[in-house]
Amino acid sequence: MPVLVRDGQIVADPWMRVEDGEATRGRIAPLAAWRRAPEGGGVWVEGAAEVDEVGEEVRIAPVVAVRFPAFADGRGLSFGALLRSRYGYRGELRAFGEIVPDLTEYMLRCGFDAFELPDRRQAEVAIVCMTRMTDHYQASVREPLPFFRRRAAGA
Amino acid sequence: MYQYNAFDQRFVEDRVEQFRDQTRRYLAGELADEQFQQLRLRNGLYIQRLAPMLRIAVPYGLLTAAQLRALAEITRKYDKGYGHLSTRQNVQINWPKLEVVPDILADLAKVQMHCIQTSGSCIRNITTDQFAGVAADEVVDARPYCEIMRQWSTYHPEFDWLPRKFKIAVNAATADRAATRVHDIGIEVRLGDDGKSRFDFYVGGGLGRTPVIGSLIREGLPEQHLLTYLEAILRVYNRYGRRDNKYKARIKILVRAMTPEKFRQRVDAEWQHLRDGSSTLPAEEIDRIRACFQPPPYADLADETARLAQQRLADAVFDIWMRNNVAAHKRPGYAIVTLSTKATGVPPGDVTDEQMEAVADWSERFGFGDIRISHEQNFVLPDVPQRDLKTLFELACTQLLGQANIGLLTDMICCPGGDFCSLANAKSIPVAEAIQRRFDDYDYLHDLGPLDINISGCMNACGHHHVGHIGILGVDKRGEEFYQISIGGNQAADASLGKILGPSFERAEVPDVIENILAVYLDRRFEGEAFLHTVRRIGVDPFKEQVYASAG
Description:
The complex is a heterodimer. Chain A is an alpha/beta fold. Chain A has six helices and eight strands. Helix content of chain A is 32%, strand content 22%. The longest helix of chain A is centred in the last third of the chain and has 13 residues, at 120-132. In chain B, helix 6 (226-240) packs across helix 8 (260-274) and helix 16 crosses helix 17 (531-538). Chain B is an alpha+beta fold. In chain B, the strands form four sheets. In chain B, strands 16, 17, 18, 19, 20 and 21 form a six-stranded mixed sheet that branches. A five-stranded antiparallel sheet of chain B has the order 1-2-5-4-13. The longest helix of chain B has 22 residues, at 6-27.
């Protein structure tokens, strides 16, 4: 069973991810199934999905779960960043698939707030990884101002 | 020189502790091999054929004397007392133990250095003209832009897990000494009518298996848009670059598949969302970084050309060194000196701890404690008073750094090859040495004129063989090492890719083949015509005929 980390803590997962079937309340279903009955259900998209084709419609989902097919595949990072910044998505943005604790910080900065780790130990490591770096140079979804602007503002 | 502030310092220290923890978890069996591999690569650590190799970042090739001394100390303390200057202006050490790499990173952090993103599928060290800031033909100082991009590209949240490695080079001088046309992004800086910098973006150039010259996709971009435009390019690449085949994953393949025009449209569409966003550079930020690269306190020196002429007359080798290794400086009375690592019998780019310390000392005695590394794997002292050139030359000779061969045949670019690298098909260092031994006469070399021989041990082209005037590529033929020879490549602004002569040769044949190629050139050249131009004029056939007739 994957262990869910949300907002920096291990939490019980109120959602169930299903391979097929309806996306009813409490379920996260693949995009095609979710489209048939989008009310209240979570949607699962591939990191490689074209955000411009799905961004508008998935905005209403309480959970968008982005699958990372391989941990070093950074497409999901762009997908998440764009869904937040360009489509204004405000619900839970979840990363699942091959999730390595050390990469959760990148995801966090790209707007993800929930992560499915393989086990409790890795979930604990991920929580530490997410706070190890004090600060970063660039702007990100999480920190909209690059450091040079915050410095200039006297931060 | 950019000096770390508290933010930069804490950043590299955080990264050291992060890597210490990753190494500990790996050794405890908590991180899988393939996971740790990707994490260690982003800290410059390869596991090689014989031992790990650690690639230390030298941002845009700039070092202080204190940093170079620290590198010398690191090679002594953790390695075998020597390092290797790479074609990305970095320094590599070949024998560190995995367990101590976090300690090496901690030592580097003490002198404002690190290994971040020197390998892996991410934005690599940004390179530029090794003469930036001092070259007589400079249009703008490229270094502040390199530093701005270094900060932007370091641990970028979205662009650290790209389809493949990503290399950016900047040129801001009349001559392109940064090989910008064979980079994933090559940025050419020029001055607009308002006296401000404008950027031309060349995208999708590269060497490797599929050599391509970059396509111009944006002309005259004003400087405040530098980062947002880069983000647009990187975002298009991150989303659409191929990930199914690592040999087709570089941006050049994407640009070619989409066509440069479609690629440009896509980038522009993305940029419309990003332009004028928070990553837009305020003038104050550009000024803040630029202030770190103010000229050092130059003295008012008289031009010493007359005195130098006498010294040159009295010493023929010094005269050749002056001609090949000394470049014109912006300031009267000063010169730029390239110290060649290409001594016969020494792998190109290899330098001992003692040589590093000597160069650090000279940089202070004959300059302001500034050192550069060129992508041709040599050291550069940027601010040498002309009156001290003779003394420096004599000192350099005592350290095997006085070879007068910059730009000549024996100043070869060469990757570590099969002696060290697990990717290589063939050795490259012994080939370089055999060529250096064959052509060791300065008069002959000088008569040949400018000639780049670039050697790569495999298709990955770390030795830039495609853009060598003569390129040598190690290939594997049924388990045997063979060498494919191409001619007519060039790395400058009129970049071109070499054409392969024909079937490959055994290692022992290579010096003869080079000699045959040069015989055709000497026979067919016009007065004063460089090798490259003769090849361009007469084509490869005459060379082919001579080489294979002799071999036959």
